[in-house]
What we know:
This protein is mainly β.
Amino acid sequence: xxxxTRILPLPLALLAGTASLSAADAASIEQLQLELQxxxxxxxxxxxxxxxxxxxxxxxxxxxxxxxxxRRPTDPIRLRRGNIYMDIGLVGTLAAGGSTAxxxxxxxxxxxxxxxxxxxxxxxxxANFAGAVDPYFRGNAxxxxxxxxxxxxxxxxxxxxxxxxxxxxxxxxxxxxxxxxFGRINTQHLHSWAFVDAPIVNARLLGPDGLRNPGxxxxxxxxxxxxxxxxxxxxxxxxxxxxxxxxxxxxxxxxEDEADEPPFAFRHAENDRGFRHLDDLLFSPRYALxxxxxxxxxxxxxxxxxxGPNSSGEAGDTVTRIYGADVTWKWKPVDxxxxxxxxxxxxxxxxxxxxxxxxxxDENGDGLVDDGDIEDLDTGAPALLDGERLTDYGFYTxxxxxxxxxxxxxxxxxxxxxxxxxxxxxxxxFNGEELGRDPARASRWRLSPNLTWYPTEFSKLxxxxxxxxxxxxxxxxxxxxxxEFVLGAHAAHTF
Length: 495
């Protein structure tokens, strides 16, 4: 039995209907609604586990006598010994296509799992393992295998966490490696995206593979008549999955030579000091609320933030602050068939304040420009950069129209930019080439129409065209065909 990973609040019409009931009955219904909201919010695996445990107790030994033909297509692949079990799922995502751009991986396609070359890209082969650990906790792990444009294979632990089934006072605790609760896209895996690639602003500010790291996350479902939840995450702030914080400024798969280009903001990374103080950690609060607008519409609004040190200066001297706001609206008629037709509009906006520390590229004090140094062309000496605040921002807006069962047309507009910094105005060079505007912060916009066909819930075909306009580079055209298959247990697509 498959249940959506995020079932939003019951229609407000149900609340209106309680007016004819007694006060006690109305209060009882309201309490039931709040409990259902809490149970359904991000608890699809938990609900599946409990339902299957009940089925197992009722059917006793009937599982051993069931034939393979009696299983439903939506049943998970399950390893079981008595009442202990683990669901297993596998999702494969492949893209084929090409672009007029010559710098596809990492520059045109800034997402870590975007199509990265002409021809074929294995975007991800993701294995998911989930189950009830005991009556108090459930566990989840997502392992992703992919191949970069150089043919090098790599494996990532995208998520691996333990989560409480239910704590008092509508609290929930998650601990382990997890995707930070920031906006809408950051918490979603590749197979849940409505487009072939990641939004530009998310990949720039949160990182090519999203913002994720080991830590803990506490959430509280507020006792309100509509869905209202607060989150607070505390995670490590270092590593390539914290790109705007204590990171070397980029994400490199395979054996790419990171010395071929300077790191973000042209500063050296000093992220090897580990954890010494609380201000070495990454803090990420989020508030989300949702309510129904009549019987056919629902609105979700969220505000997010992330605060932590970055690696451009001495410990505690430089910090990064990222703020985000998101709005999602969806219309679906009461008499829909399998969720179709529908219209969904989603927008996220992000702003980053990056405190860049001062840096003297003449590290050995000889006054000479060595390999890997930034050169001041006005003096011919290694560059001396003053500390400054870098401001970057952007947004994306996507519209989805499910016009008939299994068919969805989409359109997304991306925009990202940054205020011109002092180091970009300077006459600087790296390895003999003038730098000018930092390509990781320059103005860029992209328009992406696509068409997706879901033959069944286990497969997907998506055709997408990208029109890219990058300041200082020009325009490029890309066409990608994405193919996807699902084996075993998998989460339903989120609202």
